[in-house]
Amino acid sequence: MKNTNENVNQKVKLDDVANEAGVSKTTVSRVLNNRGYISEKTRKKVNEAMELLNYHPNEIARSLFINKTFIIGLIFPTTNNPFYGQLIFHLENISEALGYKVLLCNSEGREDKEKSYLEMLQRHQVDGIIAGSHNRGILEYDNPQLPLVGIDRYLSENTPVVSSDNYDGGKKATQLLIDKGCKKIIHINGSPSLETPANLRREAYEDVMKENEYYPQSYVIGENVIETIFNENPNIDGIFASDDLIASSVMKEAKRRNINIPADLKVIGYDGSEITRMLLPELSTIQQPVKEIADLAVQLLLKQINGETESKIEWKLPVKLIESETT
Amino acid sequence: MKNTNENVNQKVKLDDVANEAGVSKTTVSRVLNNRGYISEKTRKKVNEAMELLNYHPNEIARSLFINKTFIIGLIFPTTNNPFYGQLIFHLENISEALGYKVLLCNSEGREDKEKSYLEMLQRHQVDGIIAGSHNRGILEYDNPQLPLVGIDRYLSENTPVVSSDNYDGGKKATQLLIDKGCKKIIHINGSPSLETPANLRREAYEDVMKENEYYPQSYVIGENVIETIFNENPNIDGIFASDDLIASSVMKEAKRRNINIPADLKVIGYDGSEITRMLLPELSTIQQPVKEIADLAVQLLLKQINGETESKIEWKLPVKLIESETT
DNA sequence: GACAACATGTCAACCGGTTGACATGTTTAT
DNA sequence: ATAAACATGTCAACCGGTTGACATGTTGTC
Predict the structure, then answer these.
(1) Secondary structure of A1-62 in HEC code, one letter for each residue
(2) What is the pLDDT of residue B187?
(3) Where in this chain does the record put each HTH lacI-type domain (chains A, B) (predicted)?
(4) Over chain A, what is the mean pLDDT?
(5) Number of helices (H) and strands (E), helices first, in chain A?
(6) I need a labelling partner for A61 at 20 to 30 A (CA). Which of A214, B54, B69, B284 fits?
């Protein structure tokens, strides 16, 4: 049996298509990029050759020349989280619709991983980065060689940040608990060392509490914190958790202690992702406009990529109070 | 003010590093790739130059030459789902540890999207693809130019598939309901038109039912199906849902109808992802070994990428029955 | 019949690294 | 003293497309 060309399993390249179609390399490139004059007949011939040979243009070669990859890097703690899972879904979706692909990076909130991802994305010549995971102080963010947008995270002095209206959300949540008659309301938040807009949730909580002449008291989530809260505050009757997962842990612990929700204790969370709404519909929460956040973030990034300027740095999108059975 | 080189905002390239360090292009490349002889002194000089200039080697140029990108494509319905979110997290994590990056594709289960993603990934010269979303019949999968691994999906005759032991899972779930005394057990599954190993869950259900001389009855999930099930089967006392989200919908509907779980109706799901366990711990379920699935899938893909052969096609990993309050 | 628009080809430079061949000079070991 | 190992440089081809300049020929139109 002859070892013909067709048997050799090597990638088909533009030259092969040109040969097959009996035209020049340039003509094939013209067909691919729709430039210059091309007759319908030739176009068809070339397309047929591409079909026949199962040709896929090498985007790497193209990227190298045009100095653009149409790839966006996404750096977030993890897809294994209802909120980020939904956010990343939308980010990818919107990007795809606009002709961009996404490289996914799960930083797990670790600075070292984030740093090496950042380096990796730059090596890969991504056109821009959207990041929602962050420990401020990573030098590379301050010296951005790259279009950059943060989601719910300050990345550097002049990097745009998109977030839900955290202050308003915190206000709505706290106010609801007060309106429902809670006297001893406690707030649980993530690590406050992070300089994130999400801290505004706590700020709003504190402000509203003081306005109503209550004493604000915040705990930071961590090992056994929820147990501690119940132990240290026997008269607790309201909890504002800064995300729904924390809220669900609170509910679990309350159940274990036979504390009745909402009769004895009212609970409200934050995020309101689709999955949480589906699996835990009874939880009251402040819902973030996830799709709108993703939309805006991508838009702002593309603006930067296209060299358009935009002076506004902080973008806050309205939240929605969802009252359910836990309040 | 002079417009020195430093002011020009252009990407630093290998040549610049060479100039800065006062060595040749080749030497810099040798440092980068650790080949040939290099003195410590020179290595240091070069590294300092890279640091100083904030140099990031252009991986695109490198990929083009070595004909390898170290990128893996992931095609799944959506990250906005606890199971896929967790799976994708692990896939990315493991890949990263092995020096690969991932391009994320949310197919939404749509054939057209999947097709265009497949094409896109080939253009981008990914080294391989792991796919868990699929409508069989996409030609490209049958004619793979590319290393390929399926998760819970048959992609083509000889593409490796990794999945949980669906048959055993279906058996365990059904048997549990029977053991708990259910008489009228109904199964709800996803679209059965898909040729997926997950169909074995239904098969096991049917087999176990018949063995115990019960009449198996399956519904396909869709608009209002759950309501229909309750309406058509007033004496129903057991439901095996082929995933936890469906199970949670069943629970919701039961609550609406004041049907007590588990007294009047027992429910068991499938997946047992971390998020579901956290938000809906009361649900009994069959837990898939997500991390192990991801691990194996990546391993099998890398084997293909490295040209090693592996004749085993179907890989089944053991599931775990989690008994909770709904049974 | 002449000129514009259309169609295609040839050729080479370019994107930014990698690599092999080869030359030259310096150390080190024996 | 001499060969082997070490260190670095020069040069050019290469990866697979893209693009611009330029040439040549064909149609279509007024």
Answers:
(1) CCCCHHHCCCCCCHHHHHHHHCCCHHHHHHHHHCCCCCCHHHHHHHHHHHHHHCCCCCHHHH
(2) 95
(3) 12-66
(4) 90
(5) 13, 12
(6) B54
Which burial class, exposed, middle or buried, applies to A31 when counting CB atoms under 10 A from its CB (0-12, 13-18, 19+)? buried
- Select the CATH number that applies to the domain covering B166-288 from these four: 3.40.50.2300, 2.30.30.40, 1.10.8.190, 3.30.200.210: 3.40.50.2300
How many Å does it take to go from CA A118 to C1' C10?
44
Contact call for A80 and B81, based on CB within 8 A:
no
Domain ranges of chain B: 5-57, 70-162+291-316, 166-288
pLDDT value at residue B143: 67
Q: At what angle do helices A166-179 and A199-211 cross, to 10 degrees?
A: 40
Which nucleotide's C1' atom has the smallest distance to the CA of B67?
D15
Give residue B305's pLDDT: 95
User: Is A70-162+291-316 assigned to CATH 3.40.190.10?
Assistant: no
CATH of B5-57, one of 3.40.50.2300, 3.90.180.10, 1.10.260.40, 1.20.1070.10: 1.10.260.40
Percentage of residues in chain A having pLDDT higher than 90: 76
Nucleotide nearest to B45 (CA to C1'): D8
Mean pLDDT of A129-149: 76
